[in-house]
Write a structure and sequence with these properties.
The complex is a heterodimer of chains A (196) and B (417). Helices cover 38% and strands 18% of the residues of chain A. By secondary structure, chain A is of the alpha/beta class. Chain A has one domain: Pyruvate-ferredoxin oxidoreductase, PFOR, domain III (Pyruvate-ferredoxin Oxidoreductase, domain 3, 3-Layer(aba) Sandwich). Chain A has a six-stranded mixed beta sheet, covered by helices on one side. The longest helix of chain A is centred in the last third of the chain and has 30 residues. The radius of gyration of chain A is 16 Å and the shape is globular. The N and C termini of chain A lie far apart (35 Å). The mean pLDDT of chain A is 95. In chain B, helix 12 links the parallel strand 13 and strand 14. The chains are: A alpha/beta (196), B alpha/beta (417).
């Protein structure tokens, strides 16, 4: 089983991101479960959503306490919410920001993690460019596909087309594709740096 | 057809496939997405003929369902929490009159304190209102139980409440197999009411009944529910033959055959319990599960048979009967075979508190070691409770309790669970 926890704020499509990821996994023939951490919905309030996928039926209903991957849609949560709770050293981490881990003040924190499993991506900027609204969820899923290799970009795009239509669908798919390329190129740079 | 959809959407599709003729509803979280989807289906013409009636309250929703059902229409509504309480009087009328209404209850806590999250307080508060109560373990079963509910309701001429955990199931995206319209049509015949308000053959429904006959009418209500206990397993078999999967029935067991310890529960927590049991079984612990699907009527004989070899029974319940503790466990005690098995009541998940595998495993281990109290509260923050109680002893005007507890706990941002 692979477990993903997505943190963000009300209005950023956090719950939709988990749902899209579950649809993408379903399209690849897997069992998937997505659910929000329920609360009174308010724009800007911290929100958590979860997605699990597996080759067999998922019966577990507890929230994801030890995620394999963490997606952080809003870096302003870093000092408000215990975002990293339960994340193993082998875990993946994707943060929506145009800055790096050092600029976020996380350099010390991420030292024990595997560098190739950590990435930041300017998903809000990509969303503004392709969708015209600061909703970074789809772009982050493109980045997630590139970072983890657990889901294909094609499945993410297909899930976006399942859930949205018209220009919104196209824009989100384009944002996901560009984020995918961004994360892939970051990974290439990292592996070159490590080779040097 | 396999789909990856929200639980509410799956239920809305099941209801629409059942061809209700009247859907009346008043919105309340977490059932809202179900009736929203049905409203869209009626408006688009995908569900026709069907009248979607916006009402001014839950009391009106159930009253409209009663009128529609008495007029011979297949009637459906959905509610939760305070909404269910607000229709209480009408609930007793629907069952007392023997009207086969189907209703989804998207289980949610009851206030005060106000809380929109999941537990079973709402459905359990109405356990004796004369409705059949079915509890779904996952969204496939929620979908399947709705198809069965119309069948059961109309065969028995009794209303059926399908309970599904609010948010945990209603808002979860998971894989469901949605049957084709032809399959459902073959399974669910047109509604042929036992009683109907028909100008061509006038009758009255809802007679005033005095002491000379009231006992007999009530006895017949009880007898009918007891009769349902005999019929429901057969209908679950029929469902399996028609749709090729297990759903419904009175209860089912999981790894219970040789188990000294049996966990009894209802609803979505059964999934987490099954995973916990698998882990304990791998360690050699003899533990199994009795999963209750039908809570009313209470399947006394089936539960008794399932518990006959158990040395201890742990009931996980998402309700608190203030002043006594467990509700499901009291029903379980009534079914005990006289073997002297210990019954533990574990109150869990109230108001949306997450029920984790780790906490369940600890409670099960404590029970097996004889360390568990007869009634416990899973993951209760005892320090907070003690501080609030201490303050009450010290200060006369100690203030409102919910506010005192919140103050003790401090600010909570979105945290897992």
């Amino acid at each position: 089983m692979f477990q993903v926890r997505i943190h963000g704020r009300g209005g950023q499509g956090v719950v939709t991101a988990a749902e899209l990821l579950s649809i993408a996994a379903f399209r690849e023939g897997r069992y998937a479960q997505a659910f929000p951490s329920f609360g009174s919905e308010r724009s800007g309030a911290p929100v958590v959503a979860y997605c699990r996928f597996d080759e067999k039926e998922i019966r577990l209903r507890e929230p994801i306490l030890a995620p394999d991957a963490l997606v952080i849609q809003d870096p302003t949560l870093l000092h408000q919410v215990d975002l990293f709770a339960g994340l193993a050293r082998e875990g993946y981490m994707l943060i929506n920001t145009s800055r790096g881990f050092e600029a976020l003040g996380l350099a010390e924190f991420v030292r024990g993690f595997r560098a190739e499993r950590l990435c930041t991506v300017p998903a809000t900027e990509l969303a503004l460019k392709h969708v015209g609204r600061p909703v970074p969820n789809a772009a982050l899923l493109g980045g997630f596909a590139a970072l983890t290799g657990r889901i294909s970009l094609e499945s993410v795009a297909a899930a976006i087309r399942d859930k949205f239509s018209g220009k919104i669908s196209e824009g989100n798919a384009a944002a996901a594709a560009e984020a995918y390329e961004f994360v892939k190129s970051e990974a290439r740079e990292l592996s070159h740096a490590q080779a040097d | 057809m396999l789909k990856q959809i929200e639980g509410s959407r799956a239920v809305a599709e099941a209801v629409a496939l059942s061809r209700p003729e009247v859907v009346c509803a008043y919105p309340i979280s977490p059932q809202t997405h179900i009736v929203e989807a049905l409203g869209e289906a009626v408006k688009s013409g995908a569900l026709a003929p069907c009248e979607f009636i916006n009402v001014e309250s839950e009391f009106a929703a159930m009253s409209v369902a009663i009128g529609a059902s008495a007029a011979g229409a297949r009637a459906y509504t959905a509610t939760a929490s305070q909404g269910l309480l607000f229709m209480t009087e009408a609930l007793f009328n629907a069952s007392g009159l023997g009207l086969p209404i189907v209703m989804t209850v998207a289980n949610r806590a009851l206030g005060a304190p106000i809380n929109i999250w999941n537990d079973h307080s709402d459905a359990m508060s109405q356990r004796d209102c004369g409705w059949i109560q079915l509890f779904a373990e996952n969204n496939q079963e929620a979908l399947d139980l709705h198809l069965q509910a119309f069948r059961l309701a109309e065969e028995l001429s009794l209303p059926v409440m399908v309970c599904m955990d609010g948010f945990i199931l209603t808002h979860a995206y998971e894989r469901v197999d949605v049957p084709a319209q032809e399959q459902v049509d073959a399974y669910l015949p047109r509604f042929a009411p036992r009683q109907v308000l028909d100008p061509a053959e006038p009758v009255s429904i809802g007679a005033m009944v005095g002491p000379e006959a009231f006992m007999e009418v009530r006895y017949l209500a009880h007898a009918k529910q007891v009769q349902a206990l005999e019929l429901i397993p057969g209908w679950a078999d029929e469902f399996r033959r028609a749709f090729g999967r297990e759903a419904g029935g009175l209860m089912h067991t999981y790894r219970a055959e040789d188990a000294e310890t049996i966990v009894v529960a209802l609803g979505s927590v059964i999934g987490t319990i099954k995973d916990t049991v698998d882990e304990l079984r791998a360690q050699g612990v003899g533990i199994g599960v009795v999963a209750i699907t039908c809570f009313r009527p209470w399947p006394l004989a089936a539960v008794r048979a399932a518990l006959v070899n158990a040395r201890r029974v742990i009931v996980i319940e998402k309700t608190l009967a203030v002043g006594i503790g467990g509700i499901v466990s009291n029903n379980v005690r009534a079914a005990l075979p006289g073997s002297g098995a210990a019954v533990y009541t574990v109150i869990a998940g109230l108001g949306g508190r997450a029920i984790t595998k780790a906490s369940l495993a600890k409670a099960f281990a404590d029970a097996i070691a004889g360390r568990l109290e007869a009634t416990t509260f899973l993951d209760l923050d005892r320090q907070v409770v003690e501080r609030v109680l201490a303050r009450e002893r010290e200060v006369r005007r100690s203030g409102p309790i919910a506010e005192a507890v919140l103050k003790e706990i401090g600010p909570v941002a979105a945290r897992p669970g």
